[in-house]
Amino acid sequence: MPLLNKDKMMNGFEKAVDAVNNAADKAGRYVKEKELDKKIDDMGRSLGEGVKDIGQSFKETFTKK
Fold first, then answer.
1. Are 37 and 31 contacting, i.e. CB atoms less than 8 angstroms apart?
2. Is the pTM of this model over 0.85?
């Protein structure tokens, strides 16, 4: 009698793959539903503008005489 039952092992792998695929599908639907990609893009733009403003403030502060 072998230590590993090939059929049971393959069935377990199939279930694991199905679970991962289902989780990925749910995550994809959530991202699409909540429009997270657009929100992240907006946050990135806002952050970039804020950093530019801070840089300009530092420049003005340290170049004044």
1. yes
2. no
